[in-house]
Amino acid sequence: MDLNGKVAIVTGGKRGIGKAISKMLLKEGVNLAICSKNEEDLDLVEKELKIVANNPPLCRAVDIRNGTAVSSFIQDVYHFFGKIDILINNAATIRTGLLEEMTEEDWELLIDTNLKGPFLTMKYVIPYMKQNSSGLIINICSGLSKTAYPNFSIHCASKFGLRGMSLAVKEELKKDNIQIMILNPSSVDTDIWNYIEGDYNHKKMVSSDEVAASVLFMLKNSTNCTIDELDIAPKQGIVLR
Ligand SMILES: NC(=O)c1ccc[n+]([C@@H]2O[C@H](COP(=O)([O-])OP(=O)(O)OC[C@H]3O[C@@H](n4cnc5c(N)ncnc54)[C@H](OP(=O)(O)O)[C@@H]3O)[C@@H](O)[C@H]2O)c1
């Protein structure tokens, strides 16, 4: 796919992997809309993204757990840019611990952010893609979408769920020329590790730029073929102590 002039939405584009993907897309000439949960520092990130390329991004604080907010954001993106070609479902959060120590609030936070959020963004983006008879959605799942790991039970539930939902929607959308791809990163050096207990070697982790390069590879190789799923992890393995 030639990305120049395409319109993309990146959820959680303010930090970490989402910010690296956003910069990469802008450099490719994409018209970009990003959202993050909090308003804080969004103006600074907007300024930072504006100097990457000549196509200034639309930056909004939108909680992807809230259907009304997601629907209104996606309508705004459509009316601003006139179409929506690409959706990168990147925003997520994490809490860890033994299952019996986890709270109902932890459950609601993780399932609503990591699973309901992508459900809502896809629900409201797909009709615009159908109208255009084309679209590409990349759902950022995780190594923990396929491999269980102790202390990550609710996170695994949310990410296994997102992977399952992605595979089912992929089948629904084949006839509409809308592709769903799954990217499973593991151990990427971002702020998300502030919520994970344990001693991890951040120097051996994958960088956000390496994940963004994988997203670019998936997007570029989507004209005549589709990449169902891509795993990216440190050479030494999924989780490093
Ligand atoms: N880092 C890793 O090792 C790793 C491994 C496997 C998979 N992943 C996946 O990669 C993706 C990005 O992770 P990351 O490490 O870059 O995370 P991060 O640095 O913690 O950034 C998460 C982003 O998501 C946004 N976000 C969180 N909750 C949201 C909500 N309810 N509504 C809207 N936006 C919300 C945050 O907004 P604010 O900036 O406003 O807080 C932030 O911009 C996630 O899907 C994660 O599960 C990461």
Please, could you describe this protein's structure?
The protein is an alpha/beta fold and 241 residues long. It has a single domain, classed as 3-Layer(aba) Sandwich (Rossmann fold). Helices cover 41% and strands 15% of the residues. The chain is built from 6 helices and 7 strands. Strands 3-2-1-4-5-6-7 form a 7-stranded parallel beta sheet, sandwiched between helices. Helix 1 links the parallel strand 1 and strand 2. The structure holds NADP nicotinamide-adenine-dinucleotide phosphate. NADP nicotinamide-adenine-dinucleotide phosphate binds next to helix 1, strand 2 and helix 4.
- Going by CATH, the architecture would be 3-Layer(aba) Sandwich
CATH topology, which one? Rossmann fold
- Give the biggest sheet: 7 strands, parallel
* CATH H-level superfamily title: NAD(P)-binding Rossmann-like Domain
Q: What's the pLDDT, averaged over the residues?
A: 96
- Assign the CATH class: Alpha Beta
Radius of gyration: 17 Å
> Strand pairing plus helix content: what structural class?
alpha/beta
Bound molecules: NADP nicotinamide-adenine-dinucleotide phosphate
How do the helices and strands follow one another from N- to C-terminus?
Answer: EHEHEHEHEHEHE
What is the helix content? 40-55%
Order of adjacent strands in the largest pleated sheet:
3-2-1-4-5-6-7
Kindly give the count of domains: 1
